[in-house]
Recover the amino acids of this structure.
C-alpha cells in the first residue's frame, strides 16, 4: 500500500512538468505572412544550476539559416522554463516570417 | 567548521547564469555581408538580505538575532517586483548605444538581440545587459 502510494507520488511529480513563461517579445509584423520559420534552442540543467546562456545564439543561427538572403520579420520570441522534478529546461522559441529581400 | 564548509559549498554551487529576458529583432540578410558583434554592460548587484542571512547562519546567540533583524528589515525595504538584484547605478545600461555604434560605425544594424541576464554568486551578482547583432557592411 505504502509502496504504491510512493510510486504514484513519484509518477505524478515526474509527469507534471511545470511551465513558466519568463518573457515574450514581438517585432513589427509584415503584411505578407506566408513563409513561417521557427527555431528553438534549449538548455537542460540539474537543479536549475546553469553556467551559461549561450544557447540563445543557437536559435538565432538556426532562424537565419532558414531564410538565407532574405528578411525575417515579425519575430515572436518566447523564453520559457519547464521544471521536471529535479531537472529544469530553459528554452527560447523564435517564430517569424521570411520575406523576399 | 561544518557550517562554514556548508556556506562555501552553497555559495559555489549557486554560481550560475540567470536569464531574465530575450528579444530577437528582425534579421535582414538581403542588404549585404553581415558581421556579428556583441556588446554588454554590467553592474554589481547585491541581495543585502541574503548577505545578512549568511551572517545569521555564521554567528550564534545575540549576534545571530541581530543579523536576523537586519535581514528582515532589508527584505522589507527591497520588497516588490524587480528583475535581478538591486544595483547602485540605474543608468548603467545607457552606455550600450555608444558601444554598439563603436562596433558598427555605419549604423546599419540588423538582427539585434537584447538579453537581460546575470551571473549570480550567492548574495552578489553581475547584472548584465547584452546586445548582439549584425552590422551590414
Amino acid at each position: 500500500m505504502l509502496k504504491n502510494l510512493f510510486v504514484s507520488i513519484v509518477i505524478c511529480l515526474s509527469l507534471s512538468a511545470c511551465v513558466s513563461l519568463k518573457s515574450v517579445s514581438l517585432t513589427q509584423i509584415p503584411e505578407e505572412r506566408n513563409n513561417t520559420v521557427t527555431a528553438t534552442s534549449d538548455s537542460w540543467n540539474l537543479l536549475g544550476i546553469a553556467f551559461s546562456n549561450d544557447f540563445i545564439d543557437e536559435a538565432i543561427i538556426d532562424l537565419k539559416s532558414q531564410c538565407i538572403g532574405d528578411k525575417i520579420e515579425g519575430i515572436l520570441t518566447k523564453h520559457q522554463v519547464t521544471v521536471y522534478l529535479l531537472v529544469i529546461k530553459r528554452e527560447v522559441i523564435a517564430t517569424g516570417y521570411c520575406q523576399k529581400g | 567548521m561544518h557550517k562554514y564548509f556548508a556556506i562555501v559549498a552553497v555559495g559555489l554551487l549557486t554560481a550560475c547564469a540567470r536569464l531574465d529576458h530575450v528579444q530577437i529583432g528582425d534579421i535582414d540578410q538581403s542588404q549585404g555581408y553581415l558581421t556579428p558583434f556583441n556588446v554588454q554592460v554590467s553592474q554589481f548587484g547585491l541581495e543585502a538580505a541574503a548577505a545578512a542571512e549568511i551572517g545569521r547562519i555564521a554567528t550564534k546567540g545575540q549576534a545571530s538575532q541581530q543579523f536576523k533583524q537586519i535581514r528582515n528589515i532589508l527584505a522589507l525595504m527591497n520588497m516588490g517586483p524587480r528583475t535581478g538584484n538591486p544595483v547602485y547605478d540605474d543608468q548603467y545600461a545607457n552606455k550600450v548605444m555608444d558601444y554598439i555604434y563603436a562596433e558598427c560605425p555605419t549604423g546599419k544594424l540588423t538582427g539585434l538581440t537584447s538579453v537581460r541576464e546575470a551571473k549570480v554568486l550567492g548574495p552578489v551578482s553581475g547584472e548584465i545587459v547584452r546586445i548582439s547583432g549584425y552590422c551590414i557592411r
Helices of chain A lie at 2-15, 55-65. Chain A has a mean pLDDT of 89.
